[in-house]
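Page 47, continued from p. 46.
Same chain as before, 246 aa.
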Amino acid sequence: MLLEGKKVLVTGGAQGIGKEIIMKCLEEGASIHYCDFNEGPHKTEMDAAAKNGATVTFHSANITDEDQVKALVKDITSDGKLDVLVNNAGITRDGMVFRMPLDQWESVIKVNLTGAFLVAREVSAFMALKQKSGSIINMASVVGQMGNAGQTNYSASKAGLIGFTKSLAKETAKRNVRVNAVAPGFIATAMTDKLTDEVKSEYAKAIPLGRMGEAEDVANTVLYLACELSSYITGQVIRVDGGLVM
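Result:
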């Protein structure tokens, strides 16, 4: 198993892509810590998927609260070990920029960029200065590279996260900590399930592979970056988008 004996922290892990990442890591033998506002509907399923003595531990935490993040990481690393961070937590608050109130802009930046910074700051300090190893994976988006009408706030947050990823990778590489980003395209989630078949069909037409991706496609890429198969990869953005951006 690719992650046997490894400890993984996933933010925003209660459902959606975060939950799928957790299930994939459990399949490969990892012990999981995940944070969210509540443990979500899949905790029993996660526990059942744990193998070889691995565990799944939920932490209630707001990643935009500096004190909560410090306490979270301190708790998780109290045994001197944390191998992988998946900075997955994120929100959308879509709208055209000329009608976007300031709080709609700031809330997305605060969760998607500042929250990721707070968690990565604490984790990278542990990995680089104490453990001298680790993998940090930030969940970006193709819209952080190509933009998207109605998502100036979200696109800006993900573009910022890409720049943050590359800079942190340069800061931590000499201490054997790798930092990469995954940039999903159109992925089938509970949010996209609400779209009409016509809208989904229009999205699919823009994708060279002709279909929307699945959460498992993203989870497979995260697994690759988390394990030793990617031991010589850092500072990269891997798009999981069916060829949408080339």
